[in-house]
Design a protein that fits this description.
alpha/beta, 2 domains, binds flavin-adenine dinucleotide, 17 strands, about 375 residues, seven-stranded mixed sheet, five-stranded parallel sheet, FAD/NAD(P)-binding domain
């Protein structure tokens, strides 16, 4: 990809959907020099998913009709088309990403964990296992999976996070899941299907219908179908309550609730409380919003470090979350355009992203509700 003396126009850190998608948009800007550094392999996070986990956004090849496959990272690709399947496993989505990288010859350097980033007179100096790289612009696309959140309560260390393989292992008897949005319902349904008696605890009861149509705040149809099936078994209880503490008890734990009552879990309770922004080696180059997520300007750029962009599910603008692929991909071409314009390059090829419905530049338009 580069030698340490060359100065790239752009460097992307992370080869998940955000990193590969951004790199593909950068590749459409003729003459731009860029590369991707990945600490593992392309799609590493998906390779690390517990094997029972699957996508909840459907894949369908609607590309020719202006409805680009929801999980695509490039307008001319579709995981449904290349894999011939839907509701992909992590391994399948990693295969799709690898095929895209190979087809478009995206310059990715594997096994290159970025450990430090400093500002440099030319832009940024990025240090990885493969030596330093200097780049004028930098795109952090390291994802959130490596930053699982612990529940904010005493004894949280006695729980397993829902993203760990341990949380998907066979359980028996009663099990408590803390957190009732997508990942909590997903893992609860999994354990109910194996005969376990599961109680999901969440004071916000996100399994309710909710008032908006945004899937970042409302269960996906596939999750709701699975939830209804799990409820019909009689082995699933949804409890609108706040867990305030966990105490170990044999191989399991007692989970104390804010109303003074308690639940017993025969094995370690599962914390399905999501992920943090996971900014790793660029954390110090962003400032945080009051809710802890990175503060960005309207170009998804750090407000304190010009030239440093964020791509991926940690993007927040006001109350809008970009946590699904079909949401955060709307910004790949925008970031590439800003970088291309600064480098004095022709960015007209990026119009293909707009034509495919993969470019949102007016951030005020994202809050649209469905009428029915
Ligand atoms: C169980 C589950 C189901 C999901 N289902 C869906 C769904 O149906 N639809 C959907 O749209 N989204 C879904 N998501 C969310 C989706 O997986 C994430 O939003 C997506 O993976 C984020 O992409 P990313 O490229 O930002 O991060 P990642 O996919 O995590 O990629 C980040 C990459 O950066 C690399 N990296 C990290 N740090 C460094 C470093 N220091 N140096 C070099 N490389 C580094 C990692 O190895 C990784 O390959 C799901 C998530 C989970 C956990």
């Amino acid at each position: 990809m580069t030698s340490s003396t060359q100065v790239l126009d752009a460097l992307v850190i992370g080869a998940g959907p955000a990193g590969i998608g951004t790199a593909l948009a950068l590749a459409a800007v003729k003459g731009l020099t860029f590369g991707v550094l990945e600490r593992g392999q392309v799609g590493q996070t998906f390779l690390d998913w517990p094997e029972n986990q699957r996508f909840l956004t459907p894949s369908f090849t609607g590309n020719g009709f202006g409805a680009t496959d929801l999980n695509s990272v490039h307008p001319a690709t579709s995981p449904a088309f290349s894999l011939g399947t839907d509701y992909l496993t992590g391994e399948q989505y990693a295969r799709y990403l690898r095929s895209v990288v190979s087809h478009f010859q995206v310059p990715v350097m594997d096994d290159a964990e970025v450990t430090a980033v400093t500002t440099h007179e030319a832009g940024f100096e990025v240090f990885s296992d493969r030596g330093p790289v200097v780049s004028r612009s930098l795109v952090w696309a390291g994802g959130e999976f490596h930053h699982p959140l612990a529940p904010r309560l005493a004894g949280s260390g006695f729980s397993d996070h829902s993203s760990t393989k341990a949380s998907w292992e066979r359980r028996t008897g009663e099990l408590v899941v803390i957190g009732g949005y997508e990942s909590g319902i997903d893992i609860a349904c999994h354990h109910v299907s194996t005969g376990v008696i599961v109680t999901v605890v969440d004071a916000e009861h996100p399994w309710g219908a909710g008032s908006g149509s945004d899937p970042s705040f409302r269960l996906a149809p596939r999750s709701r179908i699975r939830l209804n099936a799990a409820l019909e078994t009689g082995r699933l209880t949804l409890m609108a309550a706040r867990a305030v503490g966990i105490q170990a008890l044999g191989n399991g734990a007692v989970i104390r609730l804010s109303d003074g009552s308690a639940l017993t879990s025969r094995s370690r309770p599962i914390a399905a409380v999501g992920f943090g922004p996971g900014l790793g080696p660029v954390d110090h180059l962003f400032t945080a919003r009051p809710d802890g997520w990175p503060l960005l300007d309207t170009d998804d750029q750090s407000t304190t470090t010009p030239g440093l962009f964020l791509s991926g599910p940690a993007i927040r603008h006001g109350g809008v979350k970009f946590c699904f692929v079909y949401k955060f991909r709307q910004r790949f071409a925008h970031i590439a355009r800003v970088i291309g314009d600064r480098a004095g390059k022709d960015t007209t090829q990026l119009e293909a992203w707009r034509e495919a419905g993969m470019l949102t530049e007016d951030l005020s338009c994202c809050g649209v509700e469905c009428a029915c």
